[in-house]
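quick one
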Amino acid sequence: MTTATLNPTAASPLLFSGAMVFDSSARSFRRADVAAIDGHIQLENAGSMPGARRIDCTGKFIIPGLIDCHVHLTGSGDPAELNAARTTPLAQRAWRAETYARATLHAGFTTVRDLGAADRLNIEMAHAVAAGLIEGPRILAAGLGVTMTGGHGHGFLATEADGADAVRKAVREQLRAGATAIKLFASGGVMTPGVDPRSPSFTEEELRAGVEEAHKAFRPVGAHAQATDGIKNAIRAGVDSIEHGVWLDDEAIEMMRERGTYLVATLTAPYQIAHRGLEAGIPSYMVDKGWQVLESHQDSFRRALQAGVRIAMGTDQGTPVNKPGENAQELLQMTALGMSSGAALMAATAWAAGLLRIEGEAGSISGGLAADLVVLDGDPLENIGVLTNQRAIRAVIQAGRIVRSDLPENED
Ligand SMILES: [Zn+2]
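structure w/ zinc ion:
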């Protein structure tokens, strides 16, 4: 693998001095200096480092690079582009996706999980980012999602399979192609015409086969699950996360809490479709479905939160009016429904890393982890909205490489 070609100075040590640094275990900020050496965080003795580039962060707040557990990086959020996607040549979609990946990274998201892309473009993008060929977040890619014949996502972001053995094979095919996460569809959804989001899809047996294959390869499984029965099938089958979780009843919430199943609510997705869909020109059947799910969705999230269900942040970026680079909107949605700013920040960093099984690589500012950092003008615990203000994001660092920065700098 080649080293990053985008920044020839990637190897020089960086020293971030004078900042307040987010401590995930205490869920608060403390004064500290942070060094990035060979792409990794060093906290001990970070105060003096001859030869390092010193970045003056006095009065600033440093958080871990943000993690979005549910994106579709091949989508812009432009409904017209989404409609044309089936007939747009692959190369064209790849070039466009590169700009979406860059926008996501520049907004402070240094890691994402891409839960479904036509032609498994997400896997190729993950390789291209890792090789330093394109700028973008570190990508855990599902390849294609796996859905039942005629199920949500079919013919586009998902491959069809019926029966446990076929699901098993479809999951193995994604893993063979290089998938580092698996997506199964346990219910209908909003964006496929003729598919009701309240109907379950795969049986528990089919889901269990998919989960088994993914877990054998140590990969996390996200289940698209909006319908109550689909959610319960997925939890029983042992998925790691329920994506969307629109219609959670008390029993489903209790099952998630007991088993430690994460909720990745993607509150932004139906919110945007309902509130901004018609003006953006998306079909009215989709807007109707958006409104249909919105109230239940928010209520489910509130109850799951109160019950202590594990929550990781995800947006479903790429769905209509859900744009790359605006991912932090989800944190506003979560806090508006009663989540504390500190918990929302954890859901988009350390807890997300836990779900994605990368807590030993990223998600907190700890010695030895990847130097993925975001430097902010304001305290996100006081105002989480600082994350959605591009001008308040003063620097983004990915694996010790400066992605963007307008902070003063000098040689140590
Ligand atoms: Zn999705």
